[in-house]
């Protein structure tokens, strides 16, 4: 439950668990120790005050015995009354001198000291001595008896002491033992809660170092480590996207260089051949020279157009490229384009038709990037010109509604084949490779169209009409 919490909560929770569990374990231990003590009391050990509680009975016996207790013959009787395991005794005369007894320590040095300690309990050498006076029938003090005892448990056998003492030491210090024990247990758990995500991050860092980004950090928690893992995941994903983007850019550059080299090879070879022919031929025929120069000019134009298209495509792929929106009179714009297309296709005598329809809120002047719209129409319509037969028709319908402009361009050519429809808007795709070296077609026209349409937040699609040829529809948003 705690492993998904914040580190502060985990620390406080772990500390609280240690205290609570230790307290509960201590209570159970004390409870068990108490019942064990009650079970072995007077069977395997005597309590610490066991012999102290015998003092009053011994004192009564001494007082009843009177002066007779001073007689050495009473030693056997006293030995029976006074337990030798826990009490040492000493019978003294009135001057404090020992007469007999089991205690050899000299406790009283004079009669005066004896009188001071009569009926008192004196602490001596870690134990206690009770001084009991002995009187005759006339209440004259004749001597005294000292009873020496200690306040500590008494074990009936050494074997019992060997296990009982350590056992109760452990019971007494069990709170500290449990705190240490549970601290070790919960600290390992706490360390594991922290160590697991840290180890995951270390392994993830190693993979990133090795450029292996195909992994996911599977650690979910609403704490600092969870946030760190999510951040690492986001960083890894951003890095992956950046590397993929960089790879795509490098791949695109590589493809562009290859395509440029491929597309320039033919016109440059033609130019080289005609230039060498001019240099080596020493021609006087101006008509032939002019023909050769026109071929060189034409192939130079093809190479230049290919380079321009590739540079423009690269510019569109730059994310910093923006739109230059301005008001455009659509009728005037399309009329101007129609005139230019008719000039370009005059040899094929193609009929160009432009129709404009305004929606409910359509306006004659629209906000759009006119330069990019011109590029779109040029690429689509000039592509149609290539595949439309002589005396054919290319129709462009424009529908204007609010901020959206829809274009539909179709021709009377043979239309697209299935392969064309699948790859039409891909970079460097050319439906007919044999024509690429003749008309400067580099396979970038419709790719550029798609890029510009998407810059206008629009969409584009291509299909074939039943009673006509190829058709391309696209939307632009102003």
Please summarize what this structure is:
The protein has 478 residues and is of the alpha+beta class. It contains 13 helices and 14 strands. Helix 1 packs antiparallel against helix 6, helix 8 (286-317) runs parallel beside helix 13 and helix 10 runs antiparallel to helix 13 (445-455).
Structural overview:
- The chain has 478 residues and is of the alpha+beta class.
- It has 4 domains: 7-44 and 158-198; 52-152, Beta-Lactamase (2-Layer Sandwich); 213-321; 323-477, Heat Shock Protein 90.
- 54% of the residues lie in helices and 17% in strands.
- The strands form 4 sheets. It has a 5-stranded antiparallel β-sheet with strand order 3-2-6-5-4, covered by helices on one side.
- Helix 1 (7-40) packs antiparallel against helix 6 (174-209).
- The protein is rod-shaped and about 175 Å long.
- It starts with 6 loop residues before the first helix and ends with a strand.
- Mean pLDDT is 84; it is low at 433-440.
Describe the secondary structure blueprint for this structure.
Blueprint: H1 7-40, E1 45-46, H2 55-65, H3 75-81, E2 87-93, E3 98-101, H4 111-117, E4 121-124, E5 127-135, E6 141-149, E7 154-155, H5 158-172, H6 174-209, H7 224-281, H8 286-317, E8 326-329, H9 330-344, E9 351-358, E10 365-368, H10 370-387, E11 393-401, E12 404-411, H11 418-423, H12 433-439, H13 445-455, E13 460-464, E14 470-477
Parallel strand pairs: 9-11
Antiparallel strand pairs: 1-7, 2-3, 2-6, 4-5, 5-6, 8-10, 11-12, 12-14, 13-14
Helix pairs in contact: 1-6, 6-7, 7-8, 8-13, 10-13
